[in-house]
UniProtKB/TrEMBL annotation, chain A:
This is Na+/H+ antiporter subunit D. GO terms for biological process: ATP synthesis coupled electron transport. Residues 125-416 form the NADH:quinone oxidoreductase/Mrp antiporter transmembrane domain. It is found in: Cell membrane; Membrane. Belongs to the CPA3 antiporters (TC 2.A.63) subunit D family. Keywords: Cell membrane, Membrane, Transmembrane, Transmembrane helix. The lineage of its organism: Bacteria, Pseudomonadati, Acidobacteriota, Holophagae, Acanthopleuribacterales.
Automatic annotation (TrEMBL), chain B:
This is NADH-quinone oxidoreductase subunit K. Belongs to the CPA3 antiporters (TC 2.A.63) subunit C family. Keywords: Cell membrane, Membrane, Transmembrane, Transmembrane helix. It comes from Acanthopleuribacter pedis. InterPro entries: CPA3_antiporter_subunitC, NUOK/Mnh_C1-like. It is a multi-pass membrane protein.
Length: 499, 115
C-alpha cells in the first residue's frame, strides 16, 4: 500500500473501530491512542520519503492526473502532517481521563479521529474539489465537537461558527464553479499549467478573490475573524486545544497552496491586499487579547494575531519570508495547542479560567508553572525558544525587502504578546489565590499523568525546536523553495501529461 | 440559456444574503439554504449547459463523439448538494436547541451577549 494513503486511512479505520467498541471504555482508549500515535510516525515517514525521493504523488485507481483523484505530498504537506499528527496524539492522550459524561464519550473519540482525517486529507489533496470535500469532513466533525456539551454558550457559539463556515464553503464552491467554467479542470497542477498563459486576468483575479475570502474566513484573518473568539473558549479543553492547533492552520495552508501554485500571476493586486490583511490581523488580534481577563479568550485572540504573522510570509513572497512563515506555522501549532491544554489543566485543577479568581499556582503547583512558562515565553518570542526564531526570520525577511514598517509592526505586536502572557503569569501563578494565606495554601487539585504528560512533551518539543532551529529552518527553507518554484510540483503531478 | 440562469443565480445570492442579514434565526437558515443552492447552480451554469446530450458512448464506438453534456460538474454538484444538505440539517437541530433554551428566535435576545 502506498504511504500517502495512510494519513487518511488510519484515522478513518480508528474512527470506525471506535464506533464499534463504545461499550468497552478501556479498549476504546487503547484503539484511540494507537491510532493517534501512528499519525506522527507516518507523517515523519512521509517527510523522510519526500526528502529522499522528492515530491510524492499517488493517482487513485491509476487514473492519471488531471483526470483522477490525486494525493500529493511535498515538504509543506509532509511537515504539516507530522506536526499535526504530534498535536493530535497529545490531545488524544490529554482527553483520556477527561471528565465527559457518557453520552459524549461515545462520540468524542470517533469525531476526534474524523477531524484528524479531514485535516490530513486537506494537506494531501491535489485537487481543488477534493480540498473542498476534506474541508467539509473536517468542518462537520468540528461542528459536532463544538456543540457536544449542549450548554447554551456552546450552542450560541456553534451557531455563529457553523453559519460563517457555511458561508465560507458556499463562497469556496462559487470560486470552484467559476474556475472550472474557465479552465475545465480542478487538478491543482493542471490549473497552474492552464492559468500560466491565460489572457483574461480580470476574470482570474475575481475568481481568486473568492478563494481569498473563503480561506481567510477559515484562517480567521482580518476582517473575517469574528467567529473565532466566541467559539473556542466555549468548547471543552481538549476540543479547544485541537481546534486552536489545527483548524485555522488548514485555512492558512490552503492560502499558501493556492496563492503560490495557482494564482501566482497577478501579484500586483494580491500582494498589497495580503500585506494589509497581515498587519491588521496581527494588530487587531493582539489588541483584542489585551482587553480580556479569561485565559482561553486571551489565547483565542492570540491565535488571530499569529495568523497575521503567517500571512506576512505570503505577502512578502520571498524565499526567506515563506520559510519563516512555515517555521512559524510549525512552532505555532505546537505552542498554541500546548497553551490551550494548559488552560484546560488550570481549569481542571482550579475550577475556572477567570484570571480574577485564579492565583497561587506558582507556590501551589510549581510543575504547572514551569510548563506554562515554556510555551508562553516561546509565544512571546523570547530566545532561545522556538517563537524567537520564527519571529526573527520573518522580521529579517521584511528588512531584506526594505520594509521597516512591517518589521516594526511585527516587533510591536511581539511586545503586546509578552504583555498578555505576563498578565496570565501574574494573575494565575504569582498572585495569591483567593483566601490564600501563610497557613492555608490555595486549593489546587493534583492532575493526572495523562493530563500533565502531553503538556510536558509539547513543552519539550518547543525547546527542541528552539535549540535545533537550524535543522527545522532547513526543512522550512526546502518547503519554501518548492512553493516559490511551482514547476517542481507540476512536473511531479502531471508527469508527461502536461498539455 | 446561460444568461438567464446567471440572473437567477444572482437573484438567489442576493435574496440569501438579504435573509441572512435579518436578526432572525429561521431567516438565517433560509438564507444559507439559498446561498448554498445558488453556488450549486452557479457550478452547473458556468460549466456550460448542454441539453439532450447525455455523455454516453454510443453502441459499437470506443469514445464519445459529437456534443455531449459535461458529466463532471454534475458529479461535483451532487457531492456538494449532499454535503450542504447534511450540514444544513445539523444546523437546524442547533437552531432548535438554541430556540428551546432561549425561547426566542431573535439573535439579539439570545443569551451570552456578543462574545
Amino acid at each position: 500500500m502506498n504511504l500517502l494513503v495512510l494519513p487518511v486511512m488510519i484515522p478513518l479505520i480508528t474512527a470506525l473501530l471506535l464506533l464499534f467498541c463504545q461499550k468497552n471504555r478501556r479498549l476504546a482508549q487503547i484503539v484511540s491512542t494507537i491510532g493517534a500515535f501512528s499519525l506522527p510516525a507516518v507523517g515523519l515517514l512521509i517527510l523522510s520519503r519526500v526528502h529522499e525521493e522528492g515530491i510524492q504523488v499517488i493517482h487513485m485507481g491509476s487514473w492519471q492526473a488531471p483526470f483522477g483523484i490525486t494525493l500529493v505530498a511535498d515538504y509543506l504537506s509532509a511537515l504539516m502532517l507530522s506536526v499535526c499528527g504530534l498535536v493530535g496524539a497529545a490531545v488524544a492522550v490529554f482527553a483520556l481521563k477527561e471528565d465527559m459524561n457518557l453520552s459524549r464519550e461515545g462520540v468524542f473519540f470517533p469525531l476526534l479521529h474524523a477531524l484528524l482525517m479531514g485535516v490530513n486529507g486537506s494537506f494531501l489533496a491535489g485537487d481543488m474539489f477534493n480540498l473542498y470535500v476534506w474541508f467539509e469532513v473536517m468542518l462537520i466533525s468540528s461542528f459536532v465537537l463544538l456543540s457536544l456539551g449542549k450548554t447554551n454558550a456552546q450552542l450560541l457559539a456553534s451557531i455563529k461558527y457553523v453559519a460563517l463556515n457555511l458561508v465560507s464553503s458556499a463562497i469556496f464552491l462559487t470560486g470552484l464553479g467559476l474556475l472550472y467554467g474557465k479552465t475545465g479542470t480542478l487538478n491543482m497542477a493542471d490549473l497552474a499549467v492552464q492559468l500560466q498563459n491565460t489572457e483574461s486576468t480580470v476574470l482570474l483575479t475575481s475568481t481568486a478573490l473568492f478563494f481569498l475570502v473563503a480561506f481567510s474566513i477559515k484562517a480567521a484573518c482580518f476582517p473575517f475573524f469574528f467567529w473565532l473568539p466566541p467559539a473556542y473558549p466555549a468548547a471543552p479543553a481538549p476540543i479547544a486545544a485541537i481546534f486552536s492547533g489545527l483548524l485555522t492552520k488548514v485555512g492558512v495552508y490552503a492560502l499558501f497552496r493556492t496563492f503560490t501554485l495557482i494564482f501566482n500571476q497577478d501579484t500586483a493586486i494580491f500582494q498589497p491586499i495580503l500585506y494589509w490583511m497581515a498587519i491588521l490581523t496581527m494588530v487587531t488580534g493582539v489588541l483584542g487579547a489585551v482587553a480580556q481577563m479569561d485565559i482561553k479568550k486571551i489565547l483565542s485572540y492570540h491565535i488571530i494575531s499569529q495568523i497575521g504573522y503567517m500571512i506576512i510570509g505570503l505577502a512578502l513572497a520571498t524565499k526567506l519570508a515563506l520559510a519563516g512563515a512555515i517555521f512559524y506555522l510549525v512552532h505555532h501549532i505546537v505552542v498554541k495547542t500546548n497553551l490551550f491544554l494548559l488552560a484546560g489543566a488550570i481549569e481542571k485543577s482550579g475550577g475556572t479560567n477567570d484570571l480574577k479568581k485564579l492565583g497561587g499556582y506558582y507556590k501551589g503547583y510549581p510543575l504547572l508553572a514551569v510548563m506554562f512558562l515554556v510555551p508562553a515565553l516561546s509565544l512571546a518570542g523570547i530566545p532561545p525558544l522556538s517563537g524567537f526564531f520564527s519571529k526573527l526570520f520573518l522580521i529579517r525577511a521584511s528588512l531584506e525587502n526594505g520594509d521597516m514598517f512591517m518589521a516594526f509592526m511585527a516587533l510591536a505586536v511581539g511586545v503586546f504578546t509578552l504583555i498578555s502572557m505576563t498578565k496570565i503569569w501574574m494573575e494565575a501563578f504569582w498572585k495569591k489565590g483567593v483566601g490564600e494565606n501563610e497557613r492555608r495554601p490555595a486549593k489546587i487539585k493534583r492532575l493526572d499523568l495523562t493530563v500533565t504528560m502531553p503538556i510536558a512533551v509539547l513543552a519539550v518539543v518547543t525547546v527542541v525546536i528552539g535549540f535545533s532551529a537550524g535543522h527545522v529552518f532547513h526543512f522550512a527553507e526546502l518547503a519554501a523553495e518548492q512553493l516559490i518554484a511551482p514547476q517542481m510540483y507540476i512536473d511531479a503531478v502531471m508527469g508527461g501529461n502536461a498539455r | 440559456m446561460e444568461p438567464f440562469w446567471a440572473v437567477v443565480v444572482g437573484i438567489m445570492f442576493g435574496a440569501g444574503i438579504y435573509l441572512m442579514l435579518r436578526r432572525n434565526l429561521s431567516k438565517l437558515i433560509l438564507g444559507l439554504i439559498l446561498i448554498s443552492n445558488a453556488a450549486n447552480m452557479l457550478i452547473m451554469t458556468s460549466a456550460g449547459l448542454t441539453r439532450d446530450a447525455p455523455p454516453m458512448i454510443a453502441a459499437g464506438k470506443e469514445t464519445l463523439t459529437g456534443t455531449y453534456a459535461d458529466p463532471l460538474p454534475q458529479a461535483l454538484v451532487l457531492t456538494a448538494i449532499v454535503i450542504g444538505f447534511g450540514v444544513l440539517a445539523y444546523f437546524l437541530t442547533l437552531l432548535q436547541g438554541a430556540y428551546k433554551s432561549n425561547k426566542s428566535e431573535n439573535l439579539d435576545r439570545l443569551g451570552g451577549g456578543a462574545s
